[in-house]
Batch of 3 targets.
Target 1
Amino acid sequence: MDGSTLPAVAEELLREIRKACRESSHGTDTFSSRLKFIFGPSAVPALDLVDQRSVTRVRSPSGRTLYQVLGSSGKLYTCYSSCHFCTCPAFGFSVLQKSESLLCKHILAAYLSQAMGTCQELSVSEEQLSNILLEPEEDEG
């Protein structure tokens, strides 16, 4: 397992959710207790973001992909599934500094939306994707 993968139990849960959503109309209700157990306090807010269809998968012609998640505060966060990273302050604090959480609610929402097939889709040019990647972060406060 390389450094860019989630723990096996988390990967397996996301695979089970993907399979269940493809095979039936069931949502994540049957998985909610396991989601809460594995992802802790990020699970319920992430499910809310999925329900609100707040996740957009952004793709360029070369196949590069990132996710943009409209947070509950109205701010747009960029998530990179290839390295499990989000631009939100909670990711930097709870995930990277404190190691209290596996993921923030935004990147978990991106994974869940992808698994459930509920992502909004946006195709952009290579230049537009580069502009998204190079956008400076707004200062908080």
Target 2
Amino acid sequence: GYPNVGKSSLINSLKRSRVCGVGATPGVTRCLQAVQLDRHIQLLDCPGVVLDSGDPPAAAPLRGALAPQRLRDPLSPAIAILRRCPSEQVGRD
């Protein structure tokens, strides 16, 4: 799945204990981890995967592929977000 969508949190919730590390930024889960839910069900927790979609580099933070704190240029992703919004929803001075 995509980074930072709650894969590890869902496993923790189903297991009713903290078996997977979680965090607010992408990259907490660094390797594949098997968690035995019950006798018949085993879940796999894995790092997020973002496939190259051919989008410009500014779109990577929008897909959760890069933590906001690691951005060199926060303006480019902000502009990409604004381009996706209808102009009547964005206030202009």
Target 3
Amino acid sequence: AAAEPRPRLSPQRLRAAVHYAVCGLCQEVAEDKAVQFSKQSLAAIAELTFRQCETFARDLEMFARHAKRSTITTEDVKLLARRSNSLLKYITQKSEELASSNMEQKEKKKKSSASKGGRMHREEEAAVTESEDSNMA
């Protein structure tokens, strides 16, 4: 069964969530680097982040649409990150890790269902042998 889609946030709530996340990240940087951010700079960074995310979302949608797909794939994300070698390398690495993990999960499911199937097959054979034995008596 597919997971239910998350309810859409209003643009205001989404903008507020981005602002909250940006402020948290900036606070970590401030503590780590012993600097301070003014409220105006935090608001500007949050707004810039929000607008950049909107641009990324539109670009990803266009990449998928251009490929005649309705689903955004990791290849679309890699294309988006193509100008940043370090980001592209990171996304590629994470994508490969996820693909490898998914393959391992599928293999485990196959082995699990195969061992259950094998066990059922042996139980069925035993039942058939018992009924043949009782027929011969």
